[in-house]
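stage 2 :: seqdesign
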């Protein structure tokens, strides 16, 4: 929870500094974001590569467990499609953002990986959609943390893992371990790793179709 508050606080501080003119308007944010992204991807790969215990846990998982991360991806995109249809209905009834289907799918393709997806979307589609992606993916993580015990009770132990998306290998792992059980930790790590690396693949695909 502390990490999430720090992220939200950083976002608010940046917003305030920009609105008050402390940060110059002509600062080349896109170039800075691109290099931060390169560093982030390097650190993700380095962190996974040096963690021998995690790699061993992943290797021990049967191939059938790969179904769960792909089920998570499919479920997320089905939910995004439903959200897009709802937006189109609301757009005819009131003033709502006119988002395309690919925009909606791009936002959902973050799978909770807000630091990566929001930067990529901001770079390609602009700050407005990037901010929506940031909020959407942070909300996914918060919902998983807050409602994990309810998910396990109502929908069994796989539910918080799918809900956590890309975060199940790190930030939501402790809450999954607590409520789903220690036996689901290796699966949670594998799930998070697979979904993690799918984010740039899906985003690149959707951007190429725009």
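stage 2 :: out
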């Amino acid at each position: 929870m502390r990490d999430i508050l720090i992220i939200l606080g950083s976002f608010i501080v940046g917003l305030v500094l920009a609105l008050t003119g402390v940060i110059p308007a002509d600062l080349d944010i896109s170039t800075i974001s691109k290099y931060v992204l390169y560093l982030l991807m390097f650190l993700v790969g380095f962190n996974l590569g040096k963690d021998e215990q995690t790699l061993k846990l992943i290797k021990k998982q049967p191939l059938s467990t790969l179904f769960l991360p792909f089920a998570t991806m499919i479920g997320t995109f089905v939910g995004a499609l439903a959200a897009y249809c709802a937006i189109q209905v609301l757009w005819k009834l009131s003033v709502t953002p006119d988002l395309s289907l690919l925009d909606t799918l791009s936002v959902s393709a973050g799978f909770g990986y807000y630091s990566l997806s929001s930067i990529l979307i901001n770079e390609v589609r602009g700050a407005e959609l990037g901010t929506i992606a940031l909020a959407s993916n942070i909300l996914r993580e918060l919902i998983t943390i807050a409602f994990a015990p309810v998910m396990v009770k109502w929908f069994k132990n796989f539910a918080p893992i799918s809900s956590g998306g890309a975060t199940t290998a790190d930030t939501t792992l402790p809450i999954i371990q607590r409520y789903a059980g220690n036996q689901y930790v290796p699966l949670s790590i594998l799930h998070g790793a697979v979904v993690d690396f799918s984010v740039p693949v899906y985003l690149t695909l959707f951007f190429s179709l725009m």
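stage 3 :: structure notes
- The chain has one domain: 26-48+65-209.
- Residues 127-155 form the longest helix (29 residues).
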